[in-house]
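Q: My labmate handed me this sequence with no annotations at all. I'd like to see what the chain might look like in three dimensions before we decide whether it's worth expressing. Could you predict it?
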Amino acid sequence: MPLTPEEPQIYESVPGPRNAAGAARTPQASRTAAPLPGPRPSPRPAPPRADSKGPSTPGRPGAPRQGNPPAPRTPAAPTSPADSAAPAAATAQIQLVAATDATAVEIADETVDKLLDEGRAPGEILLLTTGEQHPWAQHELSFGEDAYWRQLSEGEDVFCAHASAVARTSPRTIVLLAVNGGTDPEAAAALPAALEKAGEQLIVCGDPQRLRALL
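A: Here is what I predict for the chain of 215 residues:
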């Protein structure tokens, strides 16, 4: 189905060796087709909330891995919500990253890591899911929608949301869409909606054959 008056260029990639900035990370266990595992532990949990029922907050995408110091990043200029919410553009590039429903969120998290290692500011990145909510979003929503959506308006960090709520999100420079479930019509509707929010690039993590059919 056409997305824009001018067909965007689509680049496909598959997860490969991490770049030099991420080479020091501990290799992850091999993936299986099992249901999506729970969030990976973060060595630097967010400060505990007074109303928190758990010991720590599930790691936000881009959190440092256990036992490895964070890779040095290029300092980014302070941004305001208006700065981080880049205007959507019809010329945003689309990149496909191969993943299954079970691994789409994990692959999206790894892609966020790479973007941050390359010097992207966290507030430039929006991560959407078509199936189950990202573990971080599930945890933050447990404290109420007001506190959850306030983090989007603050524009300081990577924000995770469900594709069905994309209308409530603000445009950002880079949007990742993890196709981790949902029906074909739901995924097909999520693709143009996510592209509309992307200022420079839309990265779609999912089954390439299925995604090409939907595109």
